[in-house]
Structures are given as structure tokens and as C-alpha cells.
Amino acid sequence: MSTARRGRPKIKPPKKHGQEFSAERTWVALSKSIKEVQNHNAANLSFEENYRYAYNMVLHKKDEMLYNGVSALVAEHLDTLAEEHIIPRFPAGSIGDPIQRSQADELLLKGLKDVWDDHESSMTKLGQLLKYMDRIYPEKAHVPTTWVKGLELFLVHIIKTPIKDHLVTAILKQVQHEREGYVINRSAVKGCVDVFHRLETDHGTVYKTELEKKFLEESETFYKSEAQHLLSTCECPEYLRRVESRYQSEDSRIHHYLSPQTGPGLRKILEDTLLIPNLSTVISMPNSGLDSMIDTDKFDDLARLYRLYLPVQGGLSCLKRTLRESINRRGKDLNDISLGVGGGDGEGEEGQEEEGPKRKEKGKAKARPPPGALPAIKWVQDVLDLKDKFDRVWRDSFESDREVEASLNEAFESFVNNHPKAPEYTSLFIDDHLKRGIKGFTEAEVDSILDKTITVFRYISDKDVFERYYKGHLAKRLLHKRSVSDDAERGMLSKLKIESGYQFTSKLEGMFNDIKLSGDAMDEYRKVLETRTAPSVDINVTVMTATFWPFSAPKAAPLMPEILSEACKSYEAFYFSRHSGRRLTWLTSQGNADMRATFRSRSHELNVSTHALMILLLFEKLGDDDFLTYSEIKEATEIEESDLKRNLQSLACAKYKILRKHPHGREIDVDDSFSFNVDFQASIQKIKISTVSSKPETPQERKETHDRIEEERKHQIDACVVRIMKDRKHMGHNELVNEVTRQLASRFNPDPLAIKKRIEALIEREYLERCEDRKSYNYMA
Amino acid sequence: MDVDTEMQSATAQGTEESKENEWVRINSNDGFSYLVRRKVAQTSGTMANMLDPNGGYAEAQTKICTVDERGIVTEKLVEYMCFKSHYQTVGPKEDIPVQEMQERIPPEIVLEVLLAADYHEM
């Protein structure tokens, strides 16, 4: 600082470095040093001295000479290195032993790596020495810097034929070797691959241009034959396990000594060769495919299957298809078993009739389901078990995949609806559980059983058919107080409500309501009776709203004995005093009665149906040995024929023979006659006769049910069409049919033909008219 | 003759703790010698290469850099290296007294210092 203020000091010219500069001499010295560096003798050299040589040459405009000289030296050195370290290591083509061959390859790869390391280190050092040149010359002359030039020279002098081809082959051989299960020196391969990554040509890295393509080709060939090999030797789970382990080993290969950028390509090859062509072959391998994995609960294998198939094109759809097939096949088996039994039941109606009495005997064994309902319960239980099984697979192995779930449901739906009795059986199953199954189960268990049943219900497309059966079964449960738990009943009802809406259950709820109101009415009736003389028979009446309950009034009311009609009149009087304008129709066929009968040895309390009571009352006034013929009984009671026969059968032919039939036999004939069995003996005091058991319908009943349902559907379609047309006024035919189908789908699947017929009927009745174009309709107000 | 700039003593601090803090010697061509920390020397690209252990030249082994300049020029180089090393890490708000540094260079050696700085890539 002080110097600056001292005035004008003279600036001395800097002393000239190397005034006696000679480019040739300098270069000789420098090139000697460069060679020393290349021979790993840098420690003996002064950096400053050699740096100054280069500096001076640049300063004296000899930079081109310097640059070219260095390039030549590097090239020369590379050639020497190749001669020394690589070429002698070319594996001889004649080596047959894979292990020796592999070692030779490894040696070659290491050789390259050594050369690279050598080159890299000497280029670093030269770069330091020549830094001054690098700062000035490359920009001026448009040439690459020393380092980049070094890489270029390496490319030209080392990565060339035949060295390049030998290297690539060696790498591929090593990979092949490892794929065949041998251990290789991964770091040797990695060293060489890394060099390939570092070297760039105009078309990308050497790795990309020289190695990757060949590697992928090689992989494809290998895995094509591997797929063939695995297909012929492995079972399905094993195949998938192998494929997965191939995936993993290739993945580790990619990450350890190749390049992540090759990953997707390689993965695609694996999928294309191992999985995609064999998707359905593998999944449906006999005795080991999807089906048997499900059979044997191989959740891990199934999960693997899912993992492998999911990302592959067509994999998921193949899985879904096979699952559907599997479920449909299993479902068909269940249906066949169930129908086989049911079919026999329907064909040999006589056989069933023969079974009849036995069934009634067994009826008292409440804990067991009535045999008639067995196929139904078994079928539903089987369906539920199947559903459970697939649900578990779905949850544990398929990661709760939504798409898979959809096809599961689809499959279940299709086979459940293929069973003609599905709605009836489902209702029977619920009936059975509500009647007897609740004992010994906790509430939660019952709930879960009913919940599962709901899933079956969900699959049923003819929900109206189910409703009809359910109504019938529910009516019987309510009337005969067979329901074990009111809570469970209501629980079921609310589940159905959630599932199908208020409309679906309103009538069922009405039934519950009737029972409750009847109970209240009975209480009041009893109170009223206390104030006046009661009829000789105690009576319990359930008043049912006609539209809610599935019973139709009998064509002709049976003749009631005095003693009963007196009681009925008394109740009617009570009831009409409360509700004017109502009509009561007595459904004696649905009732039952407690009575006391005195036999020779002792007296018993009998619980019989109302009709049976009426029959027995006829015998009350007769002597012990008097007979009544069939036709006399029929005349006196006017009970419907089939019902009469059934009641007589249960009185005279079942386990407890209250009546004697003449002649003996199991079937009731119009010529038979009956007498009171005074010698009747039984060990128990209370005897229940004739239980009404819910059982699958006979074919005849079924036909009736179906006719009724058809009739009901007609009305529903009518109503639906009118509702839609009223809203739209004008609509095309197809559009209308679609809309109707959509709106009714929650109840049943209407047949388009049926809809068409109903439309025609509506046109006849002038609700609608056809338009000019013959394809659409107008609503007529 | 030893002239200590800035740093008082040459006690090596924790060998492995930080190579940056190890001492290196800078000699001028007329017998002056300067001890500076490695990180100071490395503000010169040329000296950094010279001392680079990976390069492995003689200077890297001995940790002595020879500067072919007079003591007065070398001293200015060292002063600037210290200046640069100190200020290259300061926050953007702090004032860097470049002006003062410039004024401290005597005009009569400016050209020499300039050439030397170019040579040493400072």
C-alpha cells in the first residue's frame, strides 16, 4: 500500500522465462516425463517443472504440437497396454469345460478393467500437467480436452474389433453361466460393464450400443427355451416359483452389474417369454393349476400367481376367467348334487308319500332339520362354504382386488341362478336357522350366518320368487310360534330391507304387526270375557290382513262343530264391536288345538290341527266300537279332500294311532272306515300330532307357485310400463324395454318377450298407442 | 530464512482430523518459504494439482511447492490466497474488501503478480 503512495515507481518488466526457449528440446523433455507418468513413476517428477514445459509451449504457440504429441503418446501407450493385458487373455475357442471357460472370461474382463484403471489414472495425471493447455487450446482449435480425448482414444484403440467382440461375448457368457446356476465373479463383470457405461459414442454409451441389445437378444433366446423346459417339467406352483425367482435374480443382476435402464426391457422379455404365452396353460394345469391350489388352500402360491399375473397384459383377465370357470364348475357340481337328490324326490312322488309318515314321526325331533329340507340346507350351506373359501383366497392371496371380486360375484350369481330352486332353498335355509339353529349359537354367530345368507340372496335375480317363499315360511313360523327368537326374525327382516328396500319388506313387516295386534286384541277379549259367560272352548285368534299373508280363503268353509262355532261367534262379536266394516274369514286349515282325550288306560293331552280336532270331535259321541266311513267324515266336516286325507293319515297311520283305520294300511282310501282307538297307549302325557314341516314343494305345488309368480310379474310389468310412459309420454320400443328391465332388475329379470306381450295388452286396453313409425308408443291419458 | 505469514506456528493439528488444515510449504526462487494450510494453497488450481496425492508427483510427496518467482511476488500470491480462502466462504451480506486488497499490491510488481497468478490459476 505504502508503495502506491510513494509517487511513480517504475514498473519493472517481468523477467522472461526460458529465454532460450526451444520447442523441440522442451517437447523431448516433456514427452519423456509423460512416458514416466504412464509407467507409474510420477513420484520422481517435479510437477512444477513439467507444468512449466507445457506452459511454455502454449505460451510460445506450440500448443498444437503439444496436443498432437500427447495424443500420439496416449494412443501408443494404449496399444501397448492392449498388447500386454488384453490380447494374451483372449479365451481360446477350444476350451470346452464351462468352469475353465468362465475363468478365462473372467480374466479377460479383469484385463480390460486393469487397462482402464491404468488409462484413467495416467490421464488424470496428464490432465493436471496439461491443464494450462486445456484452458487455452481446445477452445481455440475446437478439439476436446485432454481427458475427453483420452476417452476417445480408448474407444478407438481398445474398444475395437476383435477386443470389443471378445469382451461382449465374455460378458454374455458370464451372464449365461450365472443363469445356469453357477457362481461367477460379479465384480469382474461389473468392472467391465462400468467401463462400457463411461464410454460414449455419438449413439450413446458403449453399454447401450454394443452390449445391451445383444444381452436382451441373448436373454430372450435363453428364456424361450427356459419356458419350454419349465412347462414340460414343472407343476403350476413350481413353475410360478421358478418364474418369480428368475424375476428376482434378473433384478439383482440388473442392479449389481448391469444397468437399471435395462430393467424394463429385460422385464418385458421375461414376461413375454415366461408368462404371456403360457398364461392359460399354466393356470389351468391339470392337478396343479388354480383349481387344485384353491382346493389345497395354497394361499402363498395363489398370492404369487396374482403377483405375477397382475402386471402382465392379459394376466388379470386370464385369472378372472379361470376363477369364474372354477367357481362355475364347482357351483354346477353343487347344483347337480342338489338337483340329483331333489330330482329323485320329485320323480318318485310315491316314494315321497311313503316317506311321509316317517317324516311326521321324526318331526318331533326338533333339533334336527326335517329331512325334506335337507337338500335345501345342504345346498345353501355348500354355497356358503364355497363362497367362504373363495373369499378367503380373495382376501389372503389376491389383495382384495376389486376386479377379481366383481368376477367372483358374477360367477356366483350365474351358478346360483342356474339352480331352479335357489330362491326356495335360500328361504328354507333361513327358515331352518330361525326355527332351530339359534340354540347353542351366540347372537353374533346367528347374525353372521344370516349375513352370509344375505350374500346368497344378493346373487338371486328372481327376488320376487324368494319373497314369495319367504313369506310362506315366515307365515308358518309366526302362526305356529316356531320362531326361536323374535330378535333374529327382525334382524333378518332388517337385513332384507337394507338389501332390497322398504317395498320389499313392507308386507313382511305387516305380518309381524298383525301378530302383535292380534295379541293385544286377545288380551282385551279375555278381559271382556271376564265380565260375561265365556264359551266352553278357550280360543286364541290371530287376525291376519288378507293382503299381507300368503293364504287364500278356502273355497268352502268347513262345517264347524257347535262348540267351536260358538267360540268363533263370541270372538266375532267382540271384534266387530271394535272394528266396524271388517270381515273375518276363518282359516281353520292354519290353526291347531290342544285337547284332552280319554283312552281306556289313561288320558292324554293332544295337540292337533284344528281340522284333526274337528274329526276327533265326531267320534266323541260314538261308542267305542262304532265306525265312521270316509265319506261320512267328509260330509260331516266338509274339509277339503286333500287336507282331510292328510289329517286322517296323521291320526290313523302315524306313530300315534289315535284312530283305527279299517282296513290297515298307510294310504287313506275313500272306502276306508275309522274307529276311535280306545286301547291307545303312550308313555308320555303330552302328544303332538301332525307337525307342519316346511319342505321343498312337490312339482305340482311348484308349478302353482310359478304360475302365481308369473301372474304377479305381469302386473308388475304393466305397472312399470304405465309408470314410465306416464312420465315420458312418448318412447321408442327398445328404449322402453330397456327401462323396464332396469327398473325391475332388483326384483327379477323380465323376459323382453313378456314385456312386449304386456305392452300389446296395454295397447289393447288403450293405455298406450302405437305411433306411425311402428317403433314407438304414446301414452294415452 | 523463514517468514511466517499470518500463522504463528507450524504445529500440525490432528493428522486425520482434516487434510484441509495440514500445513504445506511454499518456496520462492530466492529462498523465502511460507507455511500455509493446504486449503489455502488449494485456492490455486496449479498448486492444488501439484499437491494432489492422486497425481502423486514429487511435490505431493514432499508437500513443498516451488514458485519460480521472487519473494516479494510470492508473498503477494500467498497473501491473496489467504484473502481468497477467507472470503470465498462468507455469506452474501458481508462486505469483501476487494478494493483494499487491490491497493495493497505495489504497482511495480503488478505485472509480475498478474503473470504469476495466471500461471498458478488463481
From TrEMBL, chain A:
- Compositional bias per record (Basic and acidic residues), positions renumbered to this chain: 698-711
Q: Where is the Cullin family profile domain?
A: 421-652
Record field: compositional bias (Basic residues): 1-16
Entry's Gene Ontology molecular function annotations = ubiquitin protein ligase binding
Looking up Pfam families in the UniProt record yields: Cullin, Cullin_AB, Cullin_Nedd8
The superkingdom of the source organism is: Eukaryota
Q: Which InterPro entries does the annotation name?
A: Cullin, Cullin-like_AB, Cullin_CS, Cullin_homology, Cullin_homology_sf, Cullin_N, Cullin_neddylation_domain, Cullin_repeat-like_dom_sf
- Which BP terms from GO are recorded? ubiquitin-dependent protein catabolic process
Single GO cellular component term: cullin-RING ubiquitin ligase complex
Going by the UniProt record, its keywords in alphabetical order are: Isopeptide bond, Ubl conjugation
Where do the segments described as Disordered lie?
1-22, 334-371, 692-711
As for family, the record states: Belongs to the cullin family.
Q: Which PANTHER family match?
A: CULLIN
Q: What protein is this chain from?
A: Cullin family profile domain-containing protein
Taxonomic lineage is:
Eukaryota, Fungi, Dikarya, Basidiomycota, Agaricomycotina
Automatic annotation (TrEMBL), chain B:
**Segment forming the signal sequence:** none
Q: Which GO terms describe its biological process?
A: ubiquitin-dependent protein catabolic process
**This protein's record includes keyword Nucleus:** yes
Subcellular location(s) per record: Nucleus
Q: Which family does it belong to?
A: Belongs to the SKP1 family.
PANTHER family of this UniProt entry?
ELONGIN-C (PTHR20648)
Q: What is this protein called?
A: Elongin-C
Give the organism, scientific name. Ephemerocybe angulata
